[in-house]
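Sat 14:20. Reprocessing the chain from the morning session after the first attempt stalled halfway. Input below, unchanged.
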Amino acid sequence: MSHALQLTAATASKAQRYQALLAALEGILAGERNLIANLANASALLYASLEGLNWAGFYLYDGAGLVVGPFQGKPACVRIAIGQGVCGTAAARRETVIVEDVHAFPGHIACDAASNSEIVVPLVGPRGLLGVLDLDSPSTHRFDRVDATGLEAVAARLIAGSDW
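Finished this time. C-alpha cells:
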C-alpha cells in the first residue's frame, strides 16, 4: 500500500470508510445475484474491513426463525427464535439494534463468550423479513449510529443485488 493510501485510510472518518466499504461491495456484487455467494463475500469483506470484530455474518429467516448463514468468525449458534437475543429482537422489531454491552442485554444469547458488544441490522425486503446482518466485537461500546447507517446501506445493497 502506498503512503498516500495509508494516510487516506488513517485519516478517513468512519463514515468515509463505510463509503469505501460500500464501493468495494458494489464491485463484489457486480454481475452476481446468487444469495449465498453474495452473503459469503459480504461477510468476508465486513470482517476484513472493519476493525475490532470477532464475528460478522448473516442469519436467514426460514419462515419460523433465524438460521445461521454465511459468516466469518468462530462457529455460531445455529438457530435463533424471533424475539430472542439481539438477533431475534432486531428481527422482531424490524429495526437495527446496537448493544454496547451484551452482558447487560436481557436474554442475550452467548454464542461466543468473547463477544462484548453487538450490532444487528434486519434484512427486510418487499415480501417481509429475510434475515439479519450480525456483527460482534470483543470490545464494549464498539458500535454506534455511524456503524448503523453504514451497515444499513450494506444491507440495502445486498437486498437489492441478490436473489432471495
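The chain is about 40% helix and 25% strand.
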